[in-house]
Amino acid sequence: MTGADLALPAQDERTMPAAVLADIDRQPLDQALFAVQALVEQHGHLVVVYSGAARPSVERRLLTVRSLLESDRIALFRPDLPPLAVAVLARQLRQLASCDLGPGVLAAAGRLLTHYLHAGAVLGTLSRLDRIPVDLKAHARSWMPGSQFAVLAHPEPHVVRLGTPGAALPGPDFGTSLVVARGQLQSDWVGTTLAPAWQVRGLREAALPAESADWWGTGKAVEFCAYLPDLSVLYQLVASVRQSPCHWCGLDVIGDRCVFCSATPPVYGELQPYDQRSYGRRAAVG
Q: Fewer CB near the last or first residue (10 Å), C or N of the chain?
């Protein structure tokens, strides 16, 4: 992870500790190289999970470090999720890291597990929210003093104004726990209304990630994320997916792309014309 506030406390005694590359873009390049190389040598493979609200210089530095190390054992994973959900997903991967899953499967599990997260926030304004579609009427109402809005960012965007009849957010149809991170907004709606409506099995508090204010367009927010807490369920979900060896790097993977080398399964069928420009060229992780 690229920030200590994305390293949530361990869910159980098997959860692996987080490795934090704090301020990697503000360190001297040789120091950043040494830190990443040490982690790769210690663990064999490294999956760096970071938020879409991270500074652009963070991603540039990560790409530079991976390129200079010329390593296909470093995977960069930036899920399209709010920062608190990114932290939850990273913890789930830390839970799974204690199981008998290969690095290619573990890295690809992040994309699978995003489908089981429900992430959103209660906001005091929508005026600077640009990551979720918001109609003009809701924008206009957000200028009214005292207005609050419940916003679901994932899996499907949804916005309701609190205080209106029937204001609710669609929730998961499976058992989850809920984590809440409070910013500069006074609201108990998540605990008193959302949690019972979603029938969550437990509610925990966390610190609001520093990048949340940028992601939501305001620090007046109460961010939340519903997730699968049990390691046994997470493992069953991942292990039930068909695994196949990556034809390029050889790692066992799930899904349609190797997260480490970005190779996709070859398409067999009609022979294609020989293209010398692409022969032998290695795919880059995006």
A: C
- Taking the CA atoms of 44, 56, 214 and 160 in sequence, report the sign of the dihedral they define: negative
Run of H or E residues at 205: strand 203-207
pLDDT at 145 over 50: yes
CB 213 within 8 A of CB 219: yes
Task: Give residue-wise pLDDT tens across range 29-58.
Answer: 999 999 999 999 999 999 999 999 999 999
Quick count: other Cβ atoms within 10 Å of Cβ 114? 18
Contact 205, 179 (CB under 8 A): yes
Q: For 238-249, write each residue's pLDDT tens digit.
A: 999 999 898 888
| CA-to-CA dists, residue 233 to 98, 116, 240, angstroms | 14, 11, 11
Instruction: Provide CB contacts within 8 A for 166, sequence distance 6+.
Output: none
What the block records as the tokens of 243 is 């695994």
Q: How many residues does the chain have?
A: 286
Residue 57, amino acid: S
Say which residue the tokens 């899904």 belong to: 255
End-to-end CA distance of the chain: 17
Q: How many CB atoms lie within 10 A of CB 154?
A: 18
Is residue 130 left, alpha or beta, with left meaning phi > 0 and alpha meaning psi from -120 to 50? alpha
Look up residue 265 and give its DSSP letter. Answer: P
Q: What DSSP character marks residue 193?
A: I
Look at residues 82, 81, 79 and name the one whose alpha carbon lies nearest to residue 109.
Answer: 79
- What's the pTM value of the predicted model, to 2 decimals? 0.88
Any idea of the CA torsion for 160, 165, 168, 173, to the nearest 10 degrees?
Answer: -150
Find, among 182, 205, 211, 116, the residue nearest to 154 by Cα: 116
Under DSSP, is residue 110 helix (H, G, I), strand (E, B) or coil?
A: helix
